[in-house]
Amino acid sequence: MDKFIDRLVQDQDIESWYVATFDKKIFKDSGVYLSFRCDGYCDLDPDFEISEEVSVTAIDDMGSGPSLIHEKAWRNFLEHAKNYEKELIRKLWAIVSSEIDLLDFQEEDLDPMNGKKQNFWDQLRVKLDLSSSDCLKSQVHLESINLLDHGLSEIGIIVFAFSVGWDDEHGVEIAMHEGRVLAASSSGDLTTRRTNIIEHLKCIQEFNFDEGDYRL
C-alpha cells in the first residue's frame, strides 16, 4: 500500500488531479450492452468491451498533493470491496426503480421524451428481468474511482463514476464513505464540488435519500 501514492501521476490538464490505473475489483463483468437512444429505442451493443482496469484519481483540493486521506480511503475500499459493490448495486437499483416509477406519473403529451423513455423501458422488460438488480450487469459500467481529500474522518470520500444505459448523456456518480452510500448525482457533479462537497451532499439528501443511505 505504501506504493499507492507513488503510482499516481499528475494529470496534464487538471493539475489538482493525480491519476493511475488499477485492476478493477468491482463490477468486473458489467457493461452497457443496452442503452437508450434519443428516438426511444433500445440500442444493443453486444461487442461492448469491458476493461479489466479502472482509472483511479486522487483529487487534491487542499493543495498538498496526494496524501494519507486519499490512501486511507483507497485502503478501506480494497479491504471492503465486496461491501462497496453491494451498496453501489443497492443504490443503482434504487435509481433504476425510481426512473421506472416516475414514468408512471408523467404524461407523454407534456414531454414527448417521456414516451420515448417509456418505450425504452418497455423494450428492456422484454430483454431483461427488471424485477431483479441482476439486470444492472448490462446497464452499468464503472468508469472511474475518484478519491476526495474531504471526508467525515481521516478517511476521504470516494466518488464512483458510472456510464449507464438509461442515461448515456449524464451517467451516474455515487459518493461513499467507509462503505456507506452518501448520495448520487449525474457525472461530474460530485467530483467538482471541491470544499463544498459535504454541504452539497446534504442538499442532495434533502430530496433524494434512499433506505440504506447514510444520513449526514
From TrEMBL:
Domain of life: Bacteria
DUF6985 domain mapped to chain residues: 54-186
Pfam hit, one: DUF6985
This protein's name: DUF6985 domain-containing protein
Naturally occurring in which organism (per UniProt): Pseudobacteriovorax antillogorgiicola
